[in-house]
Structures
1.
Amino acid sequence: MSFPTVRARRTRQTDLWRRMVRETRLTPDALIYPLFVIPGEGVRHPVSSMPGISQLSVDEAVKEARAAAEAGVPAVLLFAAPEQKDARASAALDPHGLAAEAITAVKSACPGLIVWADVCLCGATDHGHCGHVLADGAIDNDSSIQTLAQVALNYVHAGADAVAPSDMMDGRVQAIRRALDGDGCAMTPIVSYAAKYASSFYGPFREAAESAPAFGDRRSYQMDPANAREAVREVLLDIEEGADLVMVKPAGPYLDIIRRVREAVQVPVVAYQVSGEFSLIKAAAERGWIDERAAVLETLTGIQRAGADLIITYFAPEVARWLRSL
Ligand code: PBG
């Protein structure tokens, strides 16, 4: 059968028809909102490359988290940019460090909100790399995963509901799982940044998290954007090591990866709409070149249609408000 018997437009005639046959439905339940925490009190320091996003002192981060929760966002992802940066990532290991303090404060102010803590060394090291750096400039995988496991344990003890390692060292999920299980935290999930690409779209984030590498780049640990099969391998390895959720990052330029991962695994798939993806939309909208709300909803729908169960996005509270008013 074909035209004129068949007419695809029949079920597109009215808004009600379109709503009924819609295949992908965005809901606030799928959104996670990232927050950047800095030292101080009463500080909201705008990130120049991310309009509307600020680095926040702990008290302000609590306010922002509360507002997100009130908008219907179920979870936040915390990043800390501590003042003290050294080779050992001491601030991340400190039980009273900035990240731990922020986790405890947000969790006690908003007990119903799920708090994910990003686990990495880049924000707390003087060289800005995600692992320990050897004398020759190489990244020392095996000592890094020991430190990352200690950092994760520190954050869980501070109150984190889940830890999200974003360093891309080999074996870190296993090291973290062992550390948590060995210390009475067997029920804390690990959200693994499993397929994280060495992307140009992280540029604005590095201003927000003060985590740009002082030398070199991250291509010896983050994935080559040209590779897709390798993403499936990374994800399967992380699940074998104990990852409870797996992430693909960035999201928009990697929809094929989200789809492949979705088809390869049975755990929830998270996609991270990263800072560069956020800022592109903001910049075009500021110039009147694009309808911001429509563009945001379209990108998130596309990410979900590709197979993501959950989406980390800087638009989360706004989107939750839009979805509620639809
Ligand atoms: C740090 C980290 C990065 C992002 C999340 N965790 C940056 C990087 O790897 O350089 C990027 C997030 C974004 O761009 O929004 N390991």
Note: Residues 118, 120, 122, 130, 166, 202, 205-206, 211, 218, 274-275 surround PBG (CB under 6 Å).
2.
Amino acid sequence: MKKNKSLVVSILSIVLGTQLIFSQTHNIQVDLKKVGSPIQKTMYGIFFEDINYGADGGLYAELIKNRSFEFPQSLLGWTTFGNVEVRTDEAPFPNNPHYIRLSYPGHDEKQTGLDNEGFFGIGVKQDAEYRFSVWARLPQENISGSLRVELIDPESSVFSTQKLTIDSKEWKKYQVVLKAGKTEAKARLRIFLASKNAVDMDHVSLFPVDTWKGCENGLRKDLAQALYDLHPGVFRFPGGCIVEGTDLQTRYQWKNSVGPVENRKLNENRWEYTFPNRFFPDYFQSYGMGFFELFQLSEEIGAEPLPVISCGLSCQFQNKDDKAHVAVNDLDPYIQDALDLIEFANGDATTKWGKLRADMGHPASFNLKMIAVGNEQWGKLYPERLEPFVKAIRSKYPAIKIIGSAGPSPDGKDFEFGWSEMKRLKADLVDEHYYKDPQWFLANAKRYDNYDRKGPKVFAGEYACHPKNRKNNFESALCESAFMTGFERNADVVYQCTYAPLFAHVEGWQWKPDLIWFDNLRSVKSPNYYVQQLYGMHVGTNVLPTVENKLPLAGQDGIFASSALDKNKNEIILKIANTSKEPRKIAYTINGLKTSERKGTQTIFVSTDMDAENTLDKPDNVVPTEKEIRIPGNKLEVELAPQSFNLYTIKL
Ligand code: AHR
């Protein structure tokens, strides 16, 4: 009995003690009198890679798969009927030499034609318009031939149709607009030969008329808008492992991605295969959204462009043999590609590559300021290749910042070696990657507190928190919000960061987690998206010291906090995550702020369900809410909800 009594007493004291700790107020001092280091405009950005059908089948609004009949089996994605022939003689586009001849099948009751399955089907919306175009010619000396173009549903019912007359024996572009009679996520495009005269066809294309910014070779509007709405400061592209390629031949070669879209050489996508056993034999890069379009998108979404180029190493995960890479002595064409890329972005129209950019419709410079050489590279193979790039770029373009890689892991032997080599080579920034679990993210919020301030700056070029099942759930977003206070607090050494990857088609993903998920008609922003957006919309211009008992808040009692001043908006931004399961009382004192009442906002991102996700059917399951508040002076007292990310703005 005595024993039981003392047990009860000790349990009670633990409970009371815990309550005492929980109800304790955290007094946080924010110092407006000691404005800290500048926060780069590039601080919070995005990383785009053609993975998970992010480009073809995703952001790039083309609806036809294998539009140039160049997939290794020329008709992959197409079903043919009647008299259809693949040919290569007198092809209109030398880099994509295959085309199709449709000929009369011999009997009036039979038909010749083909239909395209799109990317997991073709998504069309009722009453929306779709621009069909095709390069065609009459192979014989005929006056005219004709095609019938239809949108059909999975039951083969036609819900939109148009006719095209082909009137020349020279290759010419023809186009017609189809209006969708209904909404259908899994439509197909069917093309019939509608004349006895044969017709040759190449580059068959179907785009929504209503693309982002109305461009004909345009981007899917909802997806591009979602990028714009993130307010990204920097835009890293085009990869990722696809920069390196499954082998050198299939690396991303930017020169193949510019010029007339019909003549851009098709490339195999390194993501056609992922472990374990996810194989996408039809995953190719049409390069329809190539470097010109990616630079243009950077400009449109207000982000600094950051191209990544091959350093002569093919994907190191896939290629263990040194012979799979370019020998150091043979790097010249790779280095030339880097120099030419800078000329393409910034050179005027008197230069070869600047002229191409101007001819493509952008006479003004894209104002490129930085370039990354290599993606996730490691070992001594990397610095010995990076070195000649650095020499050549520094000598021709001294103002361009060079980003080097610290490899695929955020610590360990290769990481340490990578960093020391980047210091030796005086890289301007070092690209760190980490895909880690929630515990790692919380434990690493102090990661940058003790980084060397004199060496290269940090670019967290790929990072995402994921629980065991790699879901984009609320827990992962909350941990990222907490971790990112460490980016902000260390803005003197962390210059930019980009969550990865951006997009995933729900039927075609190879990698999780991802910021934005989509199908053929809809898209959904993950909880992680909203964290990125809150940071992107509230970057601030300078760090404000934020401490409790003179220490930064990086996990004490589950609290992570950072603050910034925005000199342009004339406001203070307070970011604070409570990762504990209990509410937390916070009393902010803003030293240096006059005590009069002022306006502000309070944004709360919270869920009681750590596993909560946003889905295509329930896109708003977890979203932040914002309201206006009044701040009674230089003090702000709040109670943070359990497991919540909170953001306050205070007008000065
Ligand atoms: O983001 C997916 C992949 O993760 C990238 O291609 C690569 O850089 C990293 O390993």
Note: Residues 2-23 form the longest helix (22 residues).
